[in-house]
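Record now logged underneath.
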Amino acid sequence: MTPHAHPARLILASRSPRRLALLAQVGFAPDAQIPADVEETPRRGELPRALALRLAEEKARKIGAQSGAQSDGPAVVLAADTVVALGRRVIPVPANEAEARAGLRLLSGRRHRVYGGVAVLGADGRMRARVVETHIAFKRLEAREIEDYLRIEEWRGVAGGYAIQGRAAAFARWIRGSYSNVVGLPLFETVALLRAAGIAPKESP
């Protein structure tokens, strides 16, 4: 039997339910979902675009190394990272309500960018990766709007402290580029990378 004679498993290196749902939308069902915890602090002088790419690749390599140590057969690892930025300044995933409030105040009435890093580590060890950039303009947010948004807690666990697929959709005056990238996974680029690594959508019943 030749190496990789069996179809490779697809591992999603993320705990994000949003990324899992986006993959399902385009017909992909990971065989496993394993979160990859890596240090996400930007390096000195590191730009947001480079940060998104580096973190996605680091996550893919970490889970790839773990799966390689197991005997479950060949695996393809998909990892992603989302970075929200105002110029060179990264608006991080808020650790608490105060950080979420500060982030929304910064974004209020301004244009910002969302960088989505996507990395696919193939069963052959080859890394394929892309960075997708989406531009967004927020309206000026009233203090009450920010406090109301904080109360529904959509800010938890999301880059920039807002979920565009939820109530924050009312904040965006316009979006240029991939909408799914802002949600958490640029689908067009992700599908292309998975296909290049030999992973195809599941057949419909």
